[in-house]
Amino acid sequence: GCVFHVTASIGVTVYPQDQGDPDTLLRHADQAMYLAKQRGRNQYYFFDPVQDRRVHARREHISRIAVAIEQDELQLFYQPKVDMARGRIFGAEALVRWQHPEQGLLPPNMFLPLIEGHRLQYALDWWVLRTAIRQAALWHADGLDLVVGINVSPSTIQYPDFTSQLMQLVDEENISTDLIELEIVESDAIDDLDAVSAVIRQCEDVGVHFALDDYGTGYSSLTYIRRLPVQTLKIDQTFVKDILTDQDDLNIVEGVIGLARAFGREMIAEGVENTEIGVRLLELGCNCAQGYGIAKPMPFTEIPAWVRQYRFPSEWIEVAKKLSAA
């Protein structure tokens, strides 16, 4: 006779932990069975109602974010960047906010993590690019030239024809590439460093520079600074804001400044929350900064008035003069 070896993929759900009617319980057991099949032959899998609720909630949130993009519920706020040594306002970082109809103004950490790795991230990145470049062009038309820092995910810049699409947008708005800087966050997963580096070089060839944002928070800091041809390192605020009281943070900031010099990169410190931090950064050799001690992020329409009214702390000017005379 013949011998048959039978294997089974089994899906299980348990009542009352999984609270549903009979049809729902059968559907959940069926879902668990397919997950068991994905694990390989002769496996079983228990349906997880808690995880299922999380998955459904994420899908609902993602759908709602898609609606927010379509219905223009998003807006950009801008945080100024300054050269403390020269007393010059030279740029602003574009930061997305969600004007939620029920929950009010939501910061990016309330919704951006939900679309990380999802195709909607690409749509949001391009919404930010289009909006920021258009608004930078409007500032330029009014006589205000600020380099706008625009965050973009590594996955988006690896899409085919990213550089040509970006330049088409630049041409449509009739703006100089000197007023655009793309920022990629160091802690974002970069699966293909060579591919990302190639796109950065393409953009550099047409005049669009890159900055490595939140530098020092990732696991591959030295690899990134060596292999990514970015122009600027942005020192993460978690190290900067406590340099007056935490020796370890001060050592890290000094180390990043040394690396930036060694690799010929420009640098800007995030998290400058008071005048004294700015003074210490100037003494360390980091002249450019952004942070709440300079200005909080503000709507596009408020930037021109802020630029006209802002006065640099006299302490920065004095330190800069002493250092230049030394």
TrEMBL record:
Coiled coil: none annotated. GO terms for molecular function: cyclic-guanylate-specific phosphodiesterase activity. It comes from the Bacteria. Residues 1-49 form the GGDEF domain. It holds the Pfam family GGDEF. Residues 58-311 form the EAL domain. SMART domains: EAL (SM00052). This is GGDEF domain-containing protein. It comes from Thiolapillus brandeum.
